[in-house]
Amino acid sequence: MARAEWQTRTSLNFSSDSWSVDDVPDQSGKVFLITGGNTGLGLATAKVLLARNARVYITSRDRERGQQALHMLRRISESIHVLELDLADLHSVRKAAHEFMRYALSSLLASPFTGDRHAYTD
């Protein structure tokens, strides 16, 4: 499918003039895990999501660089967490996944339900 046809069918326009980070809606109540969030696009993404009230977990292979990013991102929001993760090391992957599930799920389960109580019926 040609790009113009795809844009017409989806009513989306991905030109640089039509969308910016200012268009990202509020992310309250949402949790994001960003691999490589201590630098580059991952760091930029974390900044935007934190500014939009998301809870963000970034990963870093290097503990020191992860902590540097954490301190910088805490200026935006306290809802930032860092996990040490080396995707080439399965032990590191298991450990990071366990930590993420423990922290992210415990905080989600401890949060009060804020949805529409009429959305669910018996």
From TrEMBL:
Mind telling me which Gene3D superfamilies this protein's record contains? Answer: NAD(P)-binding Rossmann-like Domain
Pfam families recorded for this chain?
A: adh_short
The answer on whether this UniProt entry bears the keyword Flavoprotein reads no
Which InterPro entries does the entry link to?
NAD(P)-bd_dom_sf, SDR_fam
Q: Which UniProt keywords apply?
A: Oxidoreductase
Q: Which domain of life is it from?
A: Eukaryota
An annotated Gene Ontology molecular function: oxidoreductase activity
In the record, the note on similarity to other proteins reads: Belongs to the short-chain dehydrogenases/reductases (SDR) family.
Q: What's the name of the protein?
A: Uncharacterized protein
